[in-house]
Design a protein that fits this description.
There is one protein chain. The N and C termini lie far apart (about 40 Å). It contains 8 helices and 2 strands. About 65% of the residues lie in helices and about 0% in strands. A two-stranded antiparallel ribbon has the order 1-2. It is mainly alpha-helical and about 180 residues long.
Length: about 180
Amino acid sequence: MGIPPQDSTRPDPGTGRRLHPEIFLARRRARLEKVLQHPLVSPRDSGAPEVTRTFLREEAEELYWNELEWEKLMAEEMSQGGSELVELAFPGFLAFIDGLLLKEAGPDSKVPAHPRPEVVEDLLLFLSHHCLELLPDNDADSRLELRMTERLIDLVLYRLHGLSTDGLDRLEMTRRDEEEQWN
């Protein structure tokens, strides 16, 4: 599947204008920065050769599609609301992300850790592109897949920026509850 071409856009539901995956991702980051009340700084690129970057990205994309299809077949997490259980629906994908961001190898490892944050950024764009593909669909399965993929983007952002999932989730829920109270 690969990274979507730059001209691959979807209408922004709020304005009707075309939305790029980069903008979709920037909005997710901005929402997270608002919750944290400070900017997120991405780790430096590792300088991985393009062939390595492409290989790792394609492997992770394949994991995403396989785990998504498995969940559709099993309908376990998806039938229970999905977005709260994304960690259970995408264990291989999230473990792969953790491996891409590993900063220290185990004591028995024969090779040092080589974090690849640029590959994680590529995967965030891939997931953002998929969300944009799902936006126009109104059927229940597509809406659920969209919510799950958006949650997966958040989980990947947490990992990329070294944020604790538990504390941040509570912060987000509190802010969401406050916003709903005022609306």
